[in-house]
């Protein structure tokens, strides 16, 4: 069972912006309760939809510059990137069925 | 025919976990639906809890909930990290459906779904959510380093969050529609003594300003009705909670504000075998300890109901 990989400033360009498949980026931090709650759901989506959507996690505490670049002011925020552009933003932790519905066009 | 459980507890938090501890010790083999993202309840987004008896040095909200969870598990409660999405509560056998499509049958149900953050109810509040507007200071305070933020509310949560935000923000302006606070004296005094916190009394937020990102607030003085605009980088909403009773509307008697009505000094709802506790029933106190207390009552009521069944 795979789970979402961590991305950093070192591989964000390659893993997210240059990806040929849509990428779901989970902006999270250790101190954030709702992030810890939604984390396992994001992992499930990563393994269940492998091949269709790439799922990665970005620690906003350690990678503040990227979080700032994308205007993250609330976590968890889930951004979908297609062709290097943010095409969808989901703010706040949501149950899996609600997330899958919001992500349906990329799955 | 699938198994019929004694009792299913819907929701976690101090009420749900306490009900689980009591029901488990009564050998009822309770099932607890903790909630897929709400497990642990409101205390998961707080920092230090200073008023839960037994913790003279205080305890972190998430640690307290983790301890309650372990205690419930230790006595045999079965904890499921999923949501109940549908309930049929009127028959002798209650039927519950979870977010994964599983059906659960039970003779008794304890409702402990708690409460959700209240919104001011402004169109732009929703639109700029995640763009400056937040309901979780512990989650998002970090993104407002050296910024000027507003917080709206007058209770203990607002005071706690205002104090927390001063770790990051250069200035925190607490906006309250009256000229006195509902918060406990110790929390109010602490906020008032904090040099980074300013108070804006008798003031209501009537709009959130900003195109892609929040830039300020439109305010209204509640005494003389004058309107003004003020620049802010963020808005934290801490005006209280609303009971999470949307799943049971039409089945269980609720009051005008959506709280479950219980009978007298008990956790009994209008439906036989359905009990309610915690923030879901509580207009007045809404404390971790009172939620835990009513969770205990619900388990004892359920136990008595099942033994006479």
TrEMBL record, chain A:
UniProt domain Thioredoxin: residue ranges: 1-107
Keywords linked to the UniProt accession: Disulfide bond, Electron transport, Redox-active center, Transport
Gene Ontology MF, one: protein-disulfide reductase activity
GO biological process, one term: cell redox homeostasis
CDD domains reported in the protein's UniProt record: TRX_family
Pfam families: Thioredoxin (PF00085)
InterPro entries in the record: Thioredoxin (IPR005746), Thioredoxin-like_sf (IPR036249), Thioredoxin_CS (IPR017937), Thioredoxin_domain (IPR013766)
Gene Ontology terms: cellular component: cytosol
NCBIfam families: thioredoxin
Protein name per its UniProtKB record: Unannotated protein
From TrEMBL, chain B:
Gene3D superfamilies according to UniProt: FAD/NAD(P)-binding domain (3.50.50.60)
GO molecular function, one term: thioredoxin-disulfide reductase (NADPH) activity
A GO term from the CC aspect: cytoplasm
A single BP term in Gene Ontology: removal of superoxide radicals
Claim: Flavoprotein is one of the keywords in the record: yes
Domain FAD/NAD(P)-binding span(s) in chain numbering: 6-295
The entry's keywords: Disulfide bond, FAD, Flavoprotein, Oxidoreductase, Redox-active center
InterPro entries linked to this entry: FAD/NAD-bd_sf (IPR036188), FAD/NAD-binding_dom (IPR023753), Ferredoxin-NADP_redctase_2 (IPR050097), Pyr_nucl-diS_OxRdtase_2_AS (IPR008255), Thioredox_Rdtase (IPR005982)
One Pfam family linked to the record: Pyr_redox_2
Name under which the protein is recorded: Unannotated protein
Organism (species): freshwater metagenome
